[in-house]
Amino acid sequence: MKGGAGGHWRLRLGLAILLLLAAAALAAPWVAAWLGVDPELPDLLARQAGPSAAHPLGTDELGRDILVRLLVGARVSLAVGIAAALASSAVGLAAGLLAAWRGGWVDAALMRLADGLLALPALPLLVLLAAMDPAALGLPRGSAVADVLRIVLILAIFGWVGVARLCRAAALSVLARDHVRAARALGVGEGRLLRRHVAPALAAPLTVAGSLAVAGAILAESTLSFLGLGIQPPSASWGNMLANAQDLVFSAPLAALWPGLAIALAVAGAMLVADGLREARHQSS
Amino acid sequence: MIRMIAGRLPQIAVTLALLSLAAYLAIGAMPGDPISLAMMADPRLGPDDVARMRALHGLDQPLLARWWAWASGVLRGEFGYSRLFARPAAEVLWPALRGSLVLLGTALALAATLGVAAGMLAALRPRWRGAVDAAALLSQALPAFWLGILLIILFAVTLGWLPAGGAPQEGGLAEAARFLVLPVATLAIAHLAAYARHTAAGMAEILQSPWITAARARGAGEARIALRHALPNAAVPLLSILALDAGALVSGALITETVFARPGMGKLLTDAVMGNDHNLALLALMLVATTTLLATLAADLAQRALDPRLGQGR
Asked: What angle, 0 to 180 degrees and rounded to 10, lies between the N-to-C axes of helices A28-35 and A5-26?
C-alpha cells in the first residue's frame, strides 16, 4: 500500500544497522588495543567509573571497560544469531522440502512434530535444555566457543519449525503448478526437478524466515545469558552484562543502558530486513 | 465439530505422554541426582548409605522405569512430593499458579485490548500507520528483561513512585496493585506487538474487500463497518495468538518474574528443573502443555465457528 519504496527502505535500514554492528564487532580487538584495556581482566581500582577518556562508556562492577565488552559481546550475539539462523534454516529447509515432496505420513509426522513444538512454551524448555550437561550430548564444555555451539544447537531445536512451515507451503504451491507437473510427466528426474524448479521458489521465503530467525536467536541468547545459562562470564555477552547490571541499578543505572540498547538495535535490524524482504516479495509477485 | 474433538483429543494425549517422557529424560540427563545433593550436605554419608538411599528412592532403576512409575502414579491422581519443598507437589504449585494467573491475566488482557486498538488505528487512519508500525517493531525488539530494568530505574529508583519488585506482605488490594503495575507494563508492552500487527494487516485487507464496499453503499456508518463488519473477520487469526498466550498464562513469565522477584510459575518451573525436582517440574510442565494444547484446540473450534469456510478445506 505504501508503494514500492516501503520495502526497500526497510531492507536498507535493517542491513545498514546489521553491517554497522558487524563492523563494530570486527573492530573489537583494535579498540581494545587502542584503549589499552583487556575486556576480561578486572581492574578493581577503577570499578564503576563514569565515562572518561580511558573508558568512553565507563566501567562495570569489576572495573572492566563497558565499551570494549559491548563490542566483544556483539561478536557473540551476531555469531549466535547468524549460526543459529543458518542451522535452523538448513534443518527447516530439509524438513519442509521433504514434507512437501514426500507427502503422506512423512508430511503428517513432521508437521505434527512442528505443531507440538510450537504449542509448547519455548522459554521454560530452552532453560531446561540449557541446564542439561553438555557432555551428556557429546559436546565440549567450558570454553566460550563451546557455549556458543551449545546455544546454537538448543536454538536450532526450536528454530527450524517456522522455516519448515514456510518452505513446505512454498514447495507445495510450486509442485502443484502445471509446468512442474508437465516436467515430471516428461520424465525429468526428481533431483533435477527439485533443483531447477522448487529450489528457486524457496529462496524468497527462506531469506525472510532466516532473517526472522536471526532476530529470534539474538533475543533468545541474550535471555539465556541474562538468566546465567548462556555465555558464561568472564566472556562478555550482552545478556550476561545486563545480568550484572541489574544488581547495580541503584548505584550505576547507566551500565544497564548500553547492552539492552545494543540488543534492541540488533533485533530491530534483523526484523527490518525480514519486513523489507517480505514486502519486496509481495510487490514482485 | 464433535468428530474434530474426538480426533484431536487422542493426539493431545499422545503428545503429552511423549513430552513427559522427553522432559523426564532431559531432567535425568542433568548433572547430579537428589542423592548427590544429600551427599554434599552430609559428609558422613558413605558408599553403603548412598546405595541404600538410591534403592530406597528407586534411583537405582533405569530412567525409563522411573518415568513409568511416575506416569502411572499421575494417572491415579498421585503427583508425588516436591523434593525441594518437601511438600506435595500440587500444594507447592498452587500459590505460584495463582500469582502467574493474576500477573499474566492482567497483562494479556491489557495487551490484547491495546494491541487491537492500535491495529485498528493503523488500518483506519493511514496517517498513524507508520507510528503504529514503529511502536510494534520497538516492542518486539526490546528484550523484556531490559525493559523491566529500565522501568525499575525510572519509576522505582529515580522517581520512587512504585516498588522495584517483590510481592506485598500485607495491605489490601490497592497495595497489591502497586506491585503489579511495573511487571504488568513490561509484559503488556512485549505482547502488544503481535496483536497490533495482525489486527492492522487483517483489517487493512478486509477493508478492501467488495462486501465492505457493499455495506458502505447500503449506507452503513464507518464506525459500524469497522466494529461490526471488519473487526470480527480480522479477529479470526487473532484467536490463535490468544491460544498461545493462554499457555503463557499458566507457564508464567520467567523473565518478568525474575526481574521483579515475584513468585510465579516461570520461576517455579525453572527452580524445579534446576533442583532436579522431577515431580514438581513435570507437574508444572504437564499443566502448561495441557493448557496450551487444549487452548489451541478451543481456538481452532472457535475459528471454525466464526469462519465456516475453514472446515471445508479437509
From this structure: 50
Under DSSP, is residue B82 helix (H, G, I), strand (E, B) or coil? strand
CB neighbours of residue B210 within 10 Å: 7
Tell which B residues from 211 to 270 touch A, by Cβ distance under 8 Å.
Answer: 244, 247-248, 251, 254-255, 258-259, 266, 269-270
Q: Are B297 and B12 in contact (CB under 8 A)?
A: yes
> Would you call B145 helix, strand, or coil by DSSP?
helix
Q: Which of B143, B157, B292 faces A219 most closely, judged by CB atoms?
A: B143
Model ipTM?
Answer: 0.74
The CA-atom distances, in angstroms, between A198 and each of A96, A202, B120 are 12, 7, 38
Q: What separation in angstroms does the CA of A260 have from each of B119, B174, B305?
A: 27, 32, 43
d(CA B80, CA B286): 14
Min Cα separation A192/chain B (Å)? 31
Which whole number is the average pLDDT over A115-136? 69
Confidence at A69, pLDDT banded by 50, 70, 90: confident
Three cell numbers, residue B26: 532431559
According to DSSP, the β-strands at B87-88 and B81-82 are antiparallel
Determine the distance in angstroms separating the CA of A260 from the nearest CA of chain B, rounded to an integer: 6
Q: What pLDDT does residue A153 have? A: 85
SS (H, E, C) A30-70: HHHHHHCCCCCCCCHHHCCCCCCCCCCCCECCCCCEHHHHH
What is the rounded CA–CA span in Å between residue B284 and residue A39?
A: 40
Share of chain A above pLDDT 70, in %: 81
The region of weakest confidence among A30-44, A69-83, A163-177, A264-278 is: A30-44
Cα B173 from Cα A79, distance rounded (Å): 47
Residue type, B253: A
Query: Which runs of E-coded beta strand occur in chain B?
Result: 81-82, 87-88
- b/e map of A16-49 (b: 16 or more CB within 10 Å)? ebbeebeebbeebeebbeeeebebeeeeeebeeb
Residue A90: band (very low, low, confident or very high) from pLDDT cuts 50, 70, 90: very high
| Residues in CB range of A154: below 8 A, 6 or more apart | A126, A129, A130, A224
| Euclidean distance between CA atoms B206 and B201, whole angstroms | 9
Return the axis-axis angle of helices B231-251 and B173-207, rounded to nearest 10°. 140
pLDDT recorded at residue B170 = 67
A280 within 8 A of A8, measured Cβ to Cβ: yes
DSSP for A209-273, written as a single string: HHHHHHHHHHHHHHHHHHTTSSSPTTS--HHHHHHHHHHTTTT-GGGGHHHHHHHHHHHHHHHHH
- Give the whole-angstrom CA distance, residue A164 versus residue B286: 26
Confidence of residue A53 (pLDDT cuts 50, 70, 90): low
